[in-house]
Amino acid sequence: MSLQQESRSYWLLVQGSNIVWQAGLPFGIAAELGVQACQKMRVGTWHGAPLWLAVGAESEREFVSLRSLLPLNDEDYYALTRGVEIHHFLQTHRFCGKCGGASRLVEDELAVQCSACGYRAYPVICPSIIVAVRRDGEILLANHRRHYNPNGGGMYTTLAGFVEVGETFEQAVAREVFEETGIRVKNLQYFGSQPWPFPNSQMVGFLAEYDSGEIHLQESEIADARWFALDAPLPELPPTGTIALELIKATIELYAKEKEKQCQN
């Protein structure tokens, strides 16, 4: 869709997984915001006005992490997610992966096409699983190396990992949990999904029950993993807006319902 140079719109200016945000997205015409020379693409609507992605905004601008905006409502956050992931695609597909020729954005679909051989490339989405494992009145939570605090504490969260080629989501859940903790799971239940633009994942969430095994850490990735009682205070958890926190909340609710049912019997 073409841009009217004088139309007032919202603008998404991106660097990596960071965006320009000052109590909201920049609003105005391209010239006012200094993005008239950038490659532009409409990526949706923001609060009733067009939302445009400007590729190649100057590094001198002040950017904030998209993670800090997780508390936004889903509609707004996923609009930002879409723009950030498209920006990543355009920045990493400027040249053809088949022949090395220069690529250009096409108008009939979301893709880039090689100006030399005509090969088209489409946005890459990396499927990942994330799972909350429960055992009686406990939940399995891990302190990943990236969250490790040598002074104690640190965030504990659910287990996650990328889906491998030729693997189902369910197989990925079983493999990742076993690789990272030595635990085997059963009775998998699909929970939901979440785009995760760091840089281009799609998180597919599951609930699962403990089957067998004792905790043996994959120490290259996991600093600690434990069973935490669901009726006791939990450690520091993932932030609001993450599917990880929603999985933990769902597990707590399941336990509460099971406990209530037992009391009734």
UniProtKB/TrEMBL annotation:
It catalyses: a 5'-end NAD(+)-phospho-ribonucleoside in mRNA + H2O = a 5'-end phospho-adenosine-phospho-ribonucleoside in mRNA + beta-nicotinamide D-ribonucleotide + 2 H(+); NADH + H2O = reduced beta-nicotinamide D-ribonucleotide + AMP + 2 H(+); NAD(+) + H2O = beta-nicotinamide D-ribonucleotide + AMP + 2 H(+). Its cofactor is Mg(2+); Mn(2+); Zn(2+). GO terms for molecular function: magnesium ion binding; manganese ion binding; NAD+ diphosphatase activity; NADH pyrophosphatase activity; RNA NAD-cap (NMN-forming) hydrolase activity; zinc ion binding. InterPro entries: NAD-cap_RNA_hydrolase_NudC, NudC-like_C, Nudix_hydrolase, NUDIX_hydrolase-like_dom_sf, NUDIX_hydrolase_CS, NUDIX_hydrolase_dom, RNA_Hydrolase_NudC, Znr_NADH_PPase. Pfam families: NUDIX, Zn_ribbon_NUD. Residues 123-251 form the Nudix hydrolase domain. A divalent metal cation 3 binds at E176, E180, E221. NCBIfam families: PRK00241.1. This is NAD-capped RNA hydrolase NudC. It comes from Haemophilus pittmaniae.
